[in-house]
Amino acid sequence: MRQEKTVVVKHDNFQGDYRLLRLAAPSMGPLVMPGQFVELQVPGLGDRILRRPFSVYQADADGLAILYKTVGRGTDAMRSIQAGDVVDLIGPLGKGFPENAQDKMPVLVAGGYGNAALYLKAKSSPIKGIAFFGGRSAEDILCIDEFESLGWEVRIATDDGSLGTEGLVTAAFDPWLNEQADPSKIELFVCGPNPMLKAMGDRAMAQNFTAWLSMDRNMACGVGACLTCVIKRKTAEGWAWARCCKDGPVFESREILWDE
Asked: By CB distance 3.0 to 4.6 Å, which of 116, 154, 182, 211 could disulfide with 253?
């Protein structure tokens, strides 16, 4: 983990309410592993002193990029950030996605801008599989061309039917899953809202395949100190608290004890 004053290289509209923030962070970018995140000190928030966590969309020797949606006060304040500004960043943080199992077929599943967190996984995967992206409408489906250019097949579901299959991402995923002769050969990498994560985890456990879930929690400090992001993790004795920012955010579906 590093704390770095980073220069904003580019900050533009990406699509709809989504924006792309590219930062020059040469000492941090090469360290980022797929599924890790960073904590950004957002300027202009006054008494709101806590950093904001963001998945890393792209990372290389020059720095990293964050793909985010304007949803609240923090991300709205980020709109004032301009190229040439200096922002304070901590990262890379957390435990990301593991390397692919050699005998498994990799499958990516994302809801909303969760696919931004899966891009580095798609890029580093030695085997190119299939990706399922879900969103409210066509405007919420991001980076199709980017994933396809890496060699992944992409299937889409939208709540309103404006792109791909109508319905949740499971409406596209389930028919494909039912066609698989041996589901145990599947390895899922998933990022998105909690109901989707649970739905994918339930399918993995029911059909005996592996699902790595990037948990959606408010990681206020990012370093395991504030305990705002804890989840229940199964143990031999029952369960124990786990910190998403430190012990995760990625967990295997069988580890998680969901609150019903």
From this structure: 211
Q: Are residues 166 and 228 both part of a single domain? A: yes
* Cβ atoms of residues 165 and 132 within 8 Å: no
Residue 43 lies inside a defined structural domain of this protein: yes
Task: Residue 168: give the domain boundaries.
Answer: 105-257
Bridge-based pairing of strands 2-15 and 86-93 is: antiparallel
Domain count, the chain: 2
Q: What is the pLDDT of residues 184-205, one digit of tens each?
A: 999 999 999 999 999 999 999 9
Output the domain CATH number for residue 242.
Answer: 3.40.50.80
Q: What is the mean pLDDT of residues 44-65?
A: 86
Beta-carbon contacts of 244 under 8 Å, excluding residues fewer than 6 positions away, are: 94, 215, 217, 219, 229, 230, 231
Say yes or no: 183 and 69 in one domain.
Answer: no
0.85 exceeded by pTM: yes
SS3 at position 137 = coil
Q: Mean pLDDT check: name the lowest of 98-102, 111-115, 167-171.
A: 111-115
What does the block give as tokens for 247?
A: 């012990």
CATH number, domain containing residue 69: 2.40.30.10
Q: Which pair of structure tokens corresponds to residue 176?
A: 């494909």
